[in-house]
Amino acid sequence: MKKYYMILLLFFQLSALDINANEKNLYELNNQIFNDLNLIKVKNNNSFGNPLIIVNPFQISPLTAYIIFNNEIISDINVKINKKDICHFDYNIKGSSNIYMVPIIGLKEGKNDIILKFKKNNLQKSFVITTDKINIANNIKIKINNSNNCLNEMILLSPTYPNQPGVSLFAFNKSGDIVWFLSDKNIGASSSLFIDDEGKLLINSEKNNKRPYYYSSYYKIDLMGRIFEEIKNNGYGHHEIIQLPNKNYLALVDKYIQNTIEDRVVEFDNEGNIIKEWDLKKILKLKTIIAPNMYKYYALDNDHKLAQKDWIHLNSLAFNKNLDGNIIVSSRALNAIINIGYQDKKIKWIITDPHQKWITPNIKKYLLKTKNPKNYNPYSYGQHSIFITKEKSLLVFDNGLFSDLYNRKIYDKSLSYNLKNNRSRVLEYFIDYTNKMFDVKVIHQKNYYYYSAFLGSVSKNNNKIIINYGGILKESNMPSDNIRKILFGELINSSGFSSIFEINDKKEVFNADIKGNKITTTYRTKLLNVSELLNYNKK
């Protein structure tokens, strides 16, 4: 059997070369491997005491493995990895037949101690799985500043651009060990990391239409590296994709030919057929379609004419299924959070600083009034991420772009301002739909050293809030909002890193800094519980 697998493995590798040579889809290769793995499973005659172990079964997830064996006992299996490590994983696999293909997730580089235990009769067996040496540690340094218990948990990160840190998606435990990553550097960059109701990730494919972050399709993938589906978006997909309750997808997508960019939301099915479209130009009906003067020079392109097309810069969305069944979008350029009708495509409400120059009488009537105390500014500026909680509140990662000016009610960047007074933070909004008002709380805020001029995210898993200060830029070790010049290498003494925080029961319980050789910025982060994901995945 092991000899047979080695033959198949060679076949996989040759197939990969052939597919790449013909510019075929990674999805096709992945499915071919899955079919061959199923053949191995059916023909397998290895016992529990002498199983077949396949490391990196789909050839793109090096820190995973399958343990394959036959056993007369049908039982749930408990998996323990690196049992001597504070941050070991301990999870359960449902037993449905006597042919087992046990997924092993959360391996570290080198030797890993594994214990499998049949829950039905307490039969157990120890294994050693050794992974290949990985180069990811040479490009990414994880500094743990504060940590707590991390059983079953890993923190997943999406790098900002392909190859920026030299890797695709990766995850680390709270000891700072990298325990999962995708070795194909062309997939997963700038992904929104949405998890569907089967426990699978939606990430960007390798089909990049245009730099820096426009993609024509997405992959539905699990942590083993199996690609279940390719989802075409019929356009330039960017920033965010989520799955709707009706199993269609909602995404921020540009048209192939249009005069403006990043101002459209679409609903489409598995085949890429557009079901509905929300054009913000038509919905907002602004007289001037141009990026506000304070924002347009911060677009990530040297072409200022292109920057002016990015008048709204939609960068996050959510479907408000628990409240009014409408769509919420985030506009970085307008510093606005906008609720749009799913059915009628009309504005329901807007949360934004009412004193900005783009606010017209036509827009002003939709603005929610604030209930919050006047001891801090209740609005977000240049925000990058929105997240609806199970408690029906709205979490927002507020980058605080030019917040020193906004806090002083100055709306002209030509005037001098103190960058040290800019702050990034996480806000939690509570919407009073009846009275068209909102309350807000500051969930997290650090000093100016952690000012993140762009990027960043916030999400919540059970009672744990994960915050990503994803674009902390420095000039001579001082905070900077000179985004374009730093990313394009125009400033010598510059750097960039990310800082990840976990908030549990209003307390900061974890913090880690993610640094690379020069610039390592992070698009989105998410806390993953291995047991929860495997309980989803039954295909």
Would you mind describing this structure in some detail?
The longest helix is centred in the N-terminal third of the chain and has 20 residues, at 2-21. Helix 1 packs antiparallel against helix 2 (26-43). The protein has 2 domains: 2-130, Immunoglobulin-like; 136-536, TolB, C-terminal domain (Neuraminidase). The chain has 9 helices and 34 strands. A hairpin with a 5-residue loop joins strand 25 (385-388) and strand 26 (394-398).
Secondary structure: elements and pairs:
Elements: H1 2-21, H2 26-43, E1 52-55, E2 64-70, E3 77-81, E4 89-93, E5 99-105, E6 111-118, E7 124-130, H3 136-139, E8 141-146, E9 153-159, E10 170-172, E11 178-181, E12 194-195, E13 201-204, E14 208-210, E15 214-221, E16 227-243, E17 249-254, E18 264-268, E19 274-279, H4 280-284, H5 304-309, E20 314-320, E21 326-331, E22 336-340, E23 347-351, H6 361-364, E24 369-370, E25 385-388, E26 394-398, H7 403-407, E27 425-432, E28 437-445, E29 457-461, E30 464-475, E31 478-480, H8 483-487, E32 494-504, E33 507-515, E34 522-529, H9 530-536
Parallel strand pairs: 24-28
Antiparallel strand pairs: 1-2, 2-5, 3-4, 3-6, 6-7, 8-33, 9-10, 9-34, 10-11, 12-13, 13-15, 14-15, 15-16, 16-17, 17-18, 18-19, 20-21, 21-22, 22-23, 25-26, 26-27, 27-28, 29-30, 30-31, 30-32, 32-33
**Helical percentage:** 10-25%
Which radius of gyration do the C-alpha atoms yield?
24 Å
CA distance, first residue to last residue: 24 Å
Q: Return the structural class.
A: mainly beta
Low-confidence parts lasting 5 or more residues at pLDDT below 50?
Answer: 1-23
Mean pLDDT: 85
Specify the overall morphology: globular
Which architecture of the largest domain per CATH?
6 Propeller
| CATH-defined superfamily of the largest domain | TolB, C-terminal domain
